[in-house]
Amino acid sequence: MSQESLDSSSPDPVERRRHKRYRIKERLLIRRKNGQSYQAVTSEISVSGLSAATDGVLQIDEEVDLSPVVGEQINAIVRRKAGIIYGFEFTNALDNVVEAVHLLCRGLVPFRSQADE
């Protein structure tokens, strides 16, 4: 990682992530609390969340359910939006689900963004 990306005083500081991300492309269902659901396709995953593209409209900080994630339904909060790509943070994931995501990530290719270069 370059020094510029580590400098928090730079005009466009790079966000620091808690966990390494991995490439993954799988179908996903996003269920809103109001009952609406949207099809999505994941692009990356970590033990703390994932990103997915959907034509559905979601709000930042909205609580949703994602399934299947390692065969389970996981509660998440919408943290980011960039066009049709949303970033989700897992909430209240059980230990066995976190471990299953961790094991899945071991077999995946690390996700690299321009910020990683």
Word description of this protein:
This protein is mostly beta strands. It has a single domain (18-112), classed as Beta Barrel (Thrombin, subunit H). It is 14% helix and 42% strand. The protein contains two helices and seven strands; from the N terminus they run αβββββββα. The chain has helices spanning 3-6, 95-106; strands spanning 22-23, 27-32, 37-46, 49-54, 63-69, 72-82, 85-91. The protein has a six-stranded antiparallel barrel. Strand 3 and strand 4 (49-54) form a beta hairpin. It is globular, with a radius of gyration of 15 Å. The N and C termini lie close together (6 Å).
Tell me the domain tally. 1
Q: CATH first level: which class?
A: Mainly Beta
Shape: globular
As for the CATH topology, it is: Thrombin, subunit H
What is the topology, as strand order, of the major beta sheet? 2-3-4-7-6-5
Distance between the termini: 6 Å
Strand fraction equals 35-45%
Could you list the spans in which at least 5 consecutive residues all have pLDDT below 50? 1-15
Number of strands: 7
Which structural class should the secondary elements be placed in? Answer: mainly beta
Number of helices: 2
Brief account:
With 117 residues, the protein is mostly beta strands. It has two helices and seven strands; from the N terminus they run αβββββββα.
Features:
mainly beta, disordered N terminus, Thrombin, subunit H, 117 residues, six-stranded antiparallel barrel, 2 helices
Could you give the topology of this structure?
Elements: H1 3-6, E1 22-23, E2 27-32, E3 37-46, E4 49-54, E5 63-69, E6 72-82, E7 85-91, H2 95-106
